[in-house]
Write a structure and sequence with these properties.
Elements lengths: L1 H12 L4 H33 L9 H24 L3 H26 L4 H11 L2 H23 L4 H24 L5 H17 L25 E7 L6 E8 L4 E7 L10 E4 L7
Antiparallel strand pairs: 1-2, 2-3, 3-4
Helix pairs in contact: 2-3, 2-6, 2-7, 3-4, 3-6, 4-5, 4-6, 6-7
């Protein structure tokens, strides 16, 4: 069995030279990066556009980190998709590699964020359906590569320019549509809205302070009534929760673990200074 697999790999390798494969690998990587850029930007601003009253902001550092992570994954997947002479081989292996990279990145983020063993396992299980999504995305990249090669064969510059614009629009949509689906669902919106309302009420109603862990964060009381921005993301330390960072106008920053179950976000139990949740 191993000999047959080895023979198949050698046969595939000898089908084309690296220069010939590069004609597909380079555009594959480029279109992967373009898709990543659109997805990361749209997913970062979509909630600000839909919920302008929630004081949401863009965490540019996290955006850059996500862009680098997803960009490397999609660029590598695009290059692998283009490396294979056979379309189906490129699509399948490109999708598998993309899924593995995203899965590993998800697990690393969970572990570095102090996630529990149960949450780590849950992250692994929920990421398994990404295999199908990864193969679909790899298929889209292969289609873009084939279209790119077809356009380059066109002799008239005006025709090439028009077709390239159409191709870029399609690549843009491939990143844009998943980015739109990054919009907060009802439970996430509820958690953020509850925290936002509590911050606004506490400025004029001291009885609302019971909602916040003032004993642990005494400096927080001094910032009630001050302008602030909220940076929300799914928690890497506890399932069914969000990590919401409150950054006040003077730079003072607090991050709270906010459950997304209805009614659970009323009182905040786990908060600490800084931009990350620190496990006790």
């Amino acid at each position: 069995m191993f000999k047959r697999f080895k023979a198949a790999v050698i046969s595939s390798y000898r089908q084309e030279t690296l220069a010939e494969r590069g004609l597909r690998m380079v555009p594959g990587a480029i279109y992967g990066i373009i898709t990543t850029t659109v997805f990361v930007l749209v997913s970062s601003i979509i909630n600000i556009m839909f919920f302008p009253d929630l004081h949401l902001g863009v965490d540019w550092i996290r955006l850059l980190i996500h862009w680098i992570e997803f960009g490397i994954a999609l660029a590598l997947a695009g290059a692998i998709v283009g490396w294979f002479t056979e379309e189906y081989g490129g699509i399948v292996w490109g999708g598998v590699v993309l899924t593995i990279l995203l899965l590993v990145g998800n697990l690393v983020a969970t572990l570095l964020g102090g996630g529990s063993a149960a949450l780590t396992v849950q992250s692994f299980i929920t990421a398994l359906p990404l295999v199908g999504a990864g193969i679909l995305l790899a298929g889209a990249i292969r289609v873009a590569i084939n279209r790119h090669l077809f356009i380059k064969l066109q002799e008239l510059p005006d025709v090439r320019r028009k077709l390239f614009v159409q191709l870029l629009v399609i690549v843009f949509l491939v990143g844009f549509i998943p980015g739109v689906f990054s919009r907060f669902g009802y439970t996430s919106e509820y958690a953020i809205r509850t925290l936002n309302e509590s911050l606004q009420k506490v400025a004029t109603d001291p009885s609302q302070e019971v909602r916040f862990p003032i004993a642990k964060l005494p400096a927080l009381r001094e910032h009630f009534g001050m302008g602030y921005m909220l940076y929300a993301r799914m928690s890497t330390s506890e399932a069914g929760s969000m990590d919401i960072t409150i950054q006040f106008k003077d730079g003072y920053t607090v991050t709270c673990l906010v459950p997304t179950e209805s009614g659970s976000a009323t009182y905040l139990q786990v908060c600490n200074e800084g931009t990350n949740i620190v496990s006790p």
